[in-house]
Amino acid sequence: MNDKKIIVATLIFLTIALTAYGEEFHDFNKDSKLENLSRPVRCFFDAAAQNDSKALAACFSNEVTVNIAGMQFNGPEEVVAFAERDIWSGKYKVEKAFKQGNKEIVHCLFWPSGWSSPEPPIEYQFQTKNGKILSWYGKYR
């Protein structure tokens, strides 16, 4: 009986491993749910996809506050420095975007440069004002 359990467990493991191995990563602009993003939030993802510091700074208000996984950044200069250090050369895939009250919620995956798999799934919460991002909060889902 134990042999059957071992065989079944092995088959399940191999099925999962081979399925994940065969998955193809789709770049930011493919298979992403972008149609629900506001212009300021889309600005962020477009600038990140292009590694464009100047375009990224233009997405944020001068009073922007950012809290990503416990790291706090204030103002466009600090946010851009964070992006240049931790985001550039990585890739995003937007899975879901929706409004919740005065926030835009974006569920996404992020592959840091050189990683074969993404970080744990992320939830970003954006608040915008006058066509700019006023706050950006991120946590692992």
What does this molecule look like?
By secondary structure, the protein is an alpha+beta fold. The protein has one domain: Roll (Nuclear Transport Factor 2, Chain: A), CATH 3.10.450.50. It is built from four helices and six strands. It has helices at residues 2-22, 39-50, 53-59, 75-86; strands spanning 60-68, 71-74, 91-100, 103-111, 122-129, 132-140. The chain has a six-stranded mixed sheet. A hairpin with a 2-residue loop joins strand 5 (122-129) and strand 6. Helix 2 runs antiparallel to helix 3 (53-59). The radius of gyration is 18 Å and the shape is globular. The relative contact order is 0.17.
Brief rundown of the structure:
The chain is α+β, with helices and mostly antiparallel strands and 141 residues long. 37% of the residues lie in helices and 35% in strands.
